[in-house]
Amino acid sequence: MKNKVSELMDGELDTQEAAALISGLKGGNNLHDDWEAYHLIGDALRDSSKLSINLSQRVSKQLETEPVILAPHTSKYLTKPFRRKMVGLSIAASLVIMVTGWLSMHALHQPQQTLVADNTNMEKMASPIHVINSSPYSKYAYPIEPEEIDDYLYVHGEFSPGTATRGLSTRYVHPVTVAPE
Amino acid sequence: MTRVAQFCLLLLLLPGIAQLSLARNTPDSSNDALYWLTKVAEAPRQHNYQGIFVYYADGIIETSRIVHVVDAQGEREKIEVLDGVARIVIRNEEEMKCYFPDSKTVVTERRWFRKFFPDILPRPFEDINNSYFVKKEKKERIAGKHSQIIFLEPRDNLRYGHRIWVDINTGLALKMAIVDDNRKLEQFAFAELKTGDDIGAESLNSSYSDMASEWKNHNLMTSVLNKRELEWRLKELPAGFRIMIEMKRNLAGKSVRVDHIALTDGIATVSIFIRPMSDGKSPHASGFLSTRGATNIYVRAIDDHMVTTVGEVPLETVQLIGDAVFKRLDSDD
Q: B30 to chain A, minimum CA–CA distance in Å?
């Protein structure tokens, strides 16, 4: 069953198997512990600063012991002169943010230009070009040809620092669909 | 000047400060940092090692066991993928055999530029500084060993960053991450690593070598060509990229040979595959594919040929390189 939990996390189970396993997870048996352990391993590998430790139990315990405060507390900072000063600062800050926002939109957010190297032995075709990388850029998906792509990934493995067989399974290959301009 | 005015002035200056920081105008890499990279490149030729490493990308973990021996017979290696479909690679110098027990298939080929973790750097790598700013970061403990982190920060947005954890004693890469800004696209890391001369050649034995005599054998033939021998040329390439090798090769079980041009910027590699399209098939539209981790794929058609560009670089870069391909004119050369 541990393998099934791992496969569920990797999205490798079909709908029926996944539904059955999720029911098992809800049932409160040991599967839930496996689920949390696998997530913890994944987070550790990702160097996540927020590991998937079992927070739900801790939060429940904390809530049980936490006193409920019904009276609103007042702040010593909310005196009249302080509030007046804060209002002034807020208006000034809002104005500045509007101006800087406008400047950013019109100055910083110009499509980024990337200089492309001139390949000197191709003078006939070569005119230095600039590539416009605007965001979001227009990309569209290409229909998968699994076997052929597998072959190419395998052969390319000679040059890329991958595992011995990275790319040998097309279940990981997917079309890239990016919102059109 | 009142405090409010000072505050406003500071906010007005912020975009300028931000713009300066985006310019990535980084200095030359330090010799010390480059020296660490030399150690990473040379270590696999100097040490025997065996261990277990994990590959992690897009929520998928793949575990492999590796044995690497360097002795009078040369450099030999066995890599066994422990998760999913069984796969075993046996490498003897340049000859590589990949066994697939489930399909009873063995693929044999010669590889000159093999790069299996932790042998991740090309040799020599003098042009790395043009595309990456190499710097030392903090020290960390990986797989029970002390390591120095070296970061290859890209000098533009045409490539990803590479962070390498280098074993202080041996120079072997203990961990590597390909990053897009702060996002980790893929990682390799040893969970367990043993080095030393007591790792002998007997560890390389595989039960599959004998059994495979009955299996289906695909021999991938490669012909390395002289420069400009292919009928394809490349226009302007993205900054820092150069052609590494041009080949004609066959693929497993296919009769048609494909043209293969491999490029590098010193670290990242991109392959261009060009093959004629089958008769009766309409020309393909261009488009993109992606796979696990940092690999992106761009497909386009040139007349009756399909051009597939594969590499561990951003989508823009595979597109730039794929679009740079054109057919040699008769008047060329």
A: 24
